[in-house]
């Protein structure tokens, strides 16, 4: 395989890739309730057209009633003796949030300082561009792919992929593969190719603490009736230690520690404490002191967060004792933690601290499992070599502090095949926030890396 020529083709076609990506970003394909579902139809059609235009022989939109459309494309002309890859990305996006904060409008793709700005530019329409452009490069390079590929582009990832497992079951034969490439992850930093080998899961609850039948005048009743907010704050503060660790008894039992390779990779990562604090928007003295500590805290230790706390309305609440208070609590769990056990421990801890006379209602919101993989399969060595060839520097194995609940179900539905978790997000991309963007240089490098991956897998094969 002539890697240099293949990379040259990726570069020559990149302006067209960015144009197609920009057209896709301009479609406000938000899958959340309250947004126009026809925009999801438009984005699915745009993806279908893109994959058809590059020359994929089988491209179709598949639907389930009441579910955002899926796009499935196949090219299996490499033949049965070659590996088959399932390439995943999603075409739905997050809401734009505060439009006044965007420097350029959320759905007006704009290039600035080597980045493409717009909602979905990184998460995850860049993943669609990665798959389309790496396939197109091989069509230009030798008229066909060296491996078989099936492309699956989902339309409801941002709202939980609730129907994906069922979709995989219904279309098992169509989507069968020897490995899956999920292009919805991030690099450790701009220019550093990364394989994600662990994901945190999410256990989340909504809480309502009730103390009174109605709000009461704090001057007339204060000191006699219970204060629901004070009680709630005491309950919530009991969940964590002064250093930020979780104070729930038994919560960390069974956690799988990082292996030696992960620790070596973490130690090799560039880390500037001041720059990390700038990326996070936090005081530098609160940032991890070294990169191994960062890896452990972010990828191998659970983290508890209170996502919201409310009683009354800001600017519209006077001198009253509120009758009830609401909060949302989430625990990011790591490999080795069972989500149901974590939920049970959390609920028991909370219920044991409810003051007499008050009532706490707990509504389970999420039981998403964590995920981790061994990298002993030869696919991972080939992937690291391909990433290094495309980026021009060694690849690293990292974790991801976020949750992608469907990864385990996807690999299980495919018979336990290995999964490569890659992507082009970086710490500056602002995914899920305002001013989302993708680094165009990294996108080009990712396209070249995946094109090289196809070639190396075509030459080496893949154990079945």
Tally of individual helices: 15
The CATH topology of the largest domain is: Aminopeptidase
> Helices and strands: which structural class?
alpha+beta
Largest sheet: 6 strands, mixed
Strand content: 15-25%
Top-tier CATH class of the largest domain: Alpha Beta
Q: What does it look like?
A:
The structure is a single chain. The chain is of the alpha+beta class. It folds into two domains: 3-199 and 370-460, Zn peptidases (Aminopeptidase, 3-Layer(aba) Sandwich); 201-257 and 300-368, 2-Layer Sandwich (Alpha-Beta Plaits), CATH 3.30.70.360. The protein is 35% helix and 21% strand. It is built from 15 helices and 18 strands. The protein has helices at residues 3-12, 14-25, 38-53, 125-142, 164-170, 172-175, 218-221, 228-237, 260-268, 273-280, 291-299, 339-351, 378-391, 406-413, 440-460; strands at 58-62, 70-75, 84-90, 110-112, 115-117, 148-154, 179-183, 194-199, 201-210, 216-217, 303-310, 320-321, 324-333, 359-368, 371-372, 396-400, 419-422, 437-439. It has a six-stranded mixed beta sheet, sandwiched between helices. Strands 11-13-9-14 form a four-stranded antiparallel beta sheet, covered by helices on one side. Strands 4-5-18 form a three-stranded antiparallel beta sheet. β4 and β5 (115-117) form a beta hairpin. The longest helix is centred in the C-terminal third of the chain and has 21 residues, at 440-460. The relative contact order is 0.19.
Key phrases:
464 residues; alpha+beta; Aminopeptidase; Alpha-Beta Plaits; four-stranded antiparallel β-sheet; 15 helices; 18 strands; globular
């Amino acid at each position: 395989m002539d890697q240099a020529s293949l990379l040259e083709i990726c570069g020559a076609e990149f302006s067209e890739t960015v144009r197609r990506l920009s057209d896709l970003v301009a479609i406000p394909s938000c899958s959340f309730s309250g947004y126009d579902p026809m925009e999801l139809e438009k984005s699915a059609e745009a993806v279908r057209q893109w994959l058809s235009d590059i020359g994929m022989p089988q491209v179709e939109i598949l639907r389930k009633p009441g579910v955002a459309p899926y796009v499935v494309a196949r090219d299996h002309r490499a033949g049965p003796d070659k590996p088959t890859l399932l390439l995943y990305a999603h075409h739905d996006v997050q809401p734009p949030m505060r439009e006044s904060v965007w420097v350029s409008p959320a759905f007006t793709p704009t290039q600035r300082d080597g980045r493409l700005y717009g909602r979905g530019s990184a998460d995850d329409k860049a993943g669609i561009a990665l798959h389309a452009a790496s396939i197109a490069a091989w069509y230009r390079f030798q008229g066909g792919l060296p491996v078989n590929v099936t492309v699956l582009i989902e339309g409801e990832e941002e709202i939980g992929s609730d129907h994906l497992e069922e979709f995989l079951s219904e279309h098992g034969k169509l989507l069968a593969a020897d490995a899956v490439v999920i292009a919805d992850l991030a690099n450790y930093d701009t220019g550093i190719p990364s394989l994600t080998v662990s994901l945190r899961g999410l256990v989340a609850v909504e809480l309502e603490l009730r103390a009174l039948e109605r709000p009461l005048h704090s001057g007339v009743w204060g000191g006699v009736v219970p204060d629901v907010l004070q009680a709630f704050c005491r309950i919530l503060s009991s969940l964590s230690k002064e250093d930020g660790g979780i104070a729930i008894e038994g919560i960390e039992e069974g956690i799988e520690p990082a292996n030696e390779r992960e620790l070596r990779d973490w130690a090799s990562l560039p880390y500037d404490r001041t720059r990390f604090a700038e990326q996070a928007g936090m005081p530098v003295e609160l940032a991890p002191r070294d990169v191994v500590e960062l890896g452990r805290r972010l990828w191998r230790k659970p983290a508890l967060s209170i996502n919201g706390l409310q009683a009354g309305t800001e600017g519209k609440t006077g001198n009253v004792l509120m009758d009830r208070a609401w909060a949302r609590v989430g625990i990011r769990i790591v490999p080795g933690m069972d989500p149901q056990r974590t939920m049970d421990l959390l609920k028991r801890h909370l219920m044991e601290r409810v003051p007499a006379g008050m009532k706490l209602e707990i509504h389970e919101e999420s039981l998403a499992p964590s995920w981790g993989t061994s990298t002993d399969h030869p696919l991972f060595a080939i992937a690291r070599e391909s990433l290094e060839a495309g980026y021009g520097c060694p690849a690293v194995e990292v974790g991801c502090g976020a949750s992608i609940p469907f990864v385990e179900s996807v690999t299980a539905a495919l018979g336990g095949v290995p999964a490569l978790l890659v992507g082009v997000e970086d710490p500056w991309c602002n995914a899920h926030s305002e001013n989302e963007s993708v680094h165009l240089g990294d996108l080009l490098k990712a396209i070249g890396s995946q094109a090289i991956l196809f070639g190396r897998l075509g030459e080496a094969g893949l154990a079945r």
